[in-house]
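Good morning,

Both structures are done.
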Amino acid sequence: MKYFFILLTFSVCSQLALAQSAEDSVKMVINQMFEGMKNADAALVKSTFSDSVIFQSIANAKDGTVKVVSEDPVAFLDFIGKQARGAADERIVFETVKIDGDLAIAWTPYTFYYNGKFSHCGVDSFQLVRVNGRWKIQYIIDTRRRQGCE
């Protein structure tokens, strides 16, 4: 009976370590993307994306309707590559990371600063896929607002 509990404890600890390692690797890819943004390194940002990455934002129109706006990842990379180092500074907090096999999600509240000045805040929702053993960002959707950004 004593060996059963030792084996059970070892098994649970091993699973927790694997989950933590996978979570850390998901966070690493997302952090690399933001490091690339801050350093105006479009190649680093691109390396974090899958070949078919999708960008969308939730926007509120002037008439109060909510719209989902698709953005061009190539145009985003072009924008990043033309910035001065430090110009695009998005600061995130990992609130939730969930993993099931080769699928991961991350929910990251953020505050965005442009050229050192507050621009907006919101939440980024990431979907990642593990391709050939490496996490890649497949889908990003975000909210954007200027109020309620404490």
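Second structure follows.
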Amino acid sequence: MSVCAVIISYYPNKEIISNISALIEQVDEIFVVDNGSGTVTQNLLEPLSRHPKINLIFNAQNVGIAAALNIGIRHARMVGHEWVCTFDQDSRVTPSMIGSMLAVYDTYPDKNSVSGLSPRYRDTTNGSTWGSRLKYPRDKALPYAEPLVVMTSGNLVKLAVFDVVGCFNEALFIDQVDHEFCLRCATHGYKILEVYDAILEHGLGVPTQHKFLGKTIVTSNHSTLRRYYIARNGVYVYKKFIFKYPVWVLKDAYAIFKEIFTLLVFESNRRQKMAAVSKGIIHGIFGRMGKFECSNLAGENKT
């Protein structure tokens, strides 16, 4: 089976080089799509182009996660790969991660029903391992679970699936891109297999820990602009799938509500972030999508 990787970069640090080095022996080809990071990033990444497996694609501006993923996927399809594994720039594969996922797929009886394979995630800040919240079935004897949605990073997808369900939704720009795609796959009858032995090292936001009523609370400290996209795209996806997948919608909305609570109690720039959340909710209700252009929401960055 021919497997390629698509990595989206946006003002990466030098860690991206070691992340690519960890991945390169597990795939047949890598497409690095940079989202308008500029000359410094080009100089950082250019030496990678000497490797025969690595292709660099530099966008003139930030076109969003979804559009950048679609660019990489178009290249992968033109070359003729069977699978594509999508990554954030700060995620790192563990040894045999992709092989472990494909080994489970090889033994799965109904291969035509599988759209993709997912690892579990090891938090780079505290070492804890976690996976998707909503899974079917919950049989501990199996080497996999069947989650409804998974994150983009580490998600191994059959390229043929895009012919059926379409590509990533570019109107979302960033956030909920992965969930919306997975839910579309589910509506077409596809399953995702989350493989227990496949582990991806991954961090979310810029987390900090706080004590509250004897408990440790972790805050993600996402930027003001990211808070806007999280709120807006959440509303958009909830509207789209509330009647089809109400349990997932309620669980995801509750998780975001908890994040807003921790934001209000522990994070900096609370007033600006809550204003961004409010604006995002309004835009989500009325369907104002795409890249949000507003100088008042500083911090168009990955976190």
